[in-house]
Amino acid sequence: MGGMEARTSVWRYFDIWLVAAVLLLTSYGILIIRSAVTGAPAFEALPGDQIQWAVIGVIIMVVIASIDYRVLTSSHWYIYAGLVLALVLVLVAGALGNETRRWIEIPGIGIRIQPSEFGRIFLPITFGQFLANRRNRMNQFSNTIASLIYVGVPIALIFVEPDLGMSVLYISVWFVMIWLAGLPLSHFAILAVLGISAIAIVFPFLADYQQERITTFVNPEDADPDDRFNIEQAQISIGSGGWWGKGYLNGTQSQLGFLRVQHTDFIFSVVTEEMGLVFGSLVVMVLIGFILWRIMRAAWLSPDPAGKFICVGIATVIFFQTAVNIGMNVRLVPVTGLTLPFVSYGGSSLTTLFIGIGIVQSVLMRHRKQEFG
Length: 373
What we know:
Layout: H1 2-11, H2 16-37, H3 46-66, H4 69-74, H5 76-93, E1 95-97, E2 100-106, E3 111-113, H6 115-133, H7 141-160, H8 164-180, H9 185-202, H10 208-218, H11 225-241, H12 252-255, H13 267-301, H14 305-329, H15 347-365
């Protein structure tokens, strides 16, 4: 009977508020995707697909929450090796889309998996345990270099795909997690100098379209009108939405097809144009803010350093993607393919976020010391 009691007591700590916020945001996203693809027959199936992914996501979340996250942290080297292998596979045999190799096509069922999306959730697990194991060595520069190599391998593989947005996302996860683990400021200073030199060296090797995106951002006047078009349409959408929006299914930019990739990269523009600042942007930002608060609460409650690091890593992913996605919609950052968490269309993107929430729940449900073992 003891085991049974322990099991029910663990579920007592399951954060139902976190799940409620995630489900609300996902449902809101599905409504907006439906509006974004209205009048585009090629995309009509997308809202239905997204509902299926959401259902699969919820099931996976519950399954993962029921698994002790220490099972995952104890096999962190295997997870890391799997991630690196998957990224290598993408480069060797990946499916092409828009001049980039990011997907592995599963033959027979036509499902495409994007390993970098899975990696952004699994990296916090493996790197969290990596940092927890090396807590006593945080002052050694050799340890800092080791951590850089550790994250550098997947980042290099993603960068080559090429996927600039994801590479920067991984770097930010590394930065926040190692800062939390207590990296000395002097190390940061040295790394910053190295980083700036690296950017100068790497820029000429970026794919043409990536260089264009960055130059379009830095110097929009000289940019190719085509590159500028989407960003300007996004700004028009957001500007014209005003406080209350034009009404669901009534956005002119989105409904008349001015906005491209509006169901993924530029969904925030559709939200703001149709639902306005009050019922659109604000709702999305408040829900994401609430989700982040609940994840940070789990980090704060966890007595286990690896558990803490994992939650903070997952929160960083959600925060960074939100900031970059909204930022590129309002022209604060260059356009990268980072989607708006839980709102943008995408199977890999949505299911991996649900995996992330499941891991946070697992950490939270086992935060009481006496239930360890």
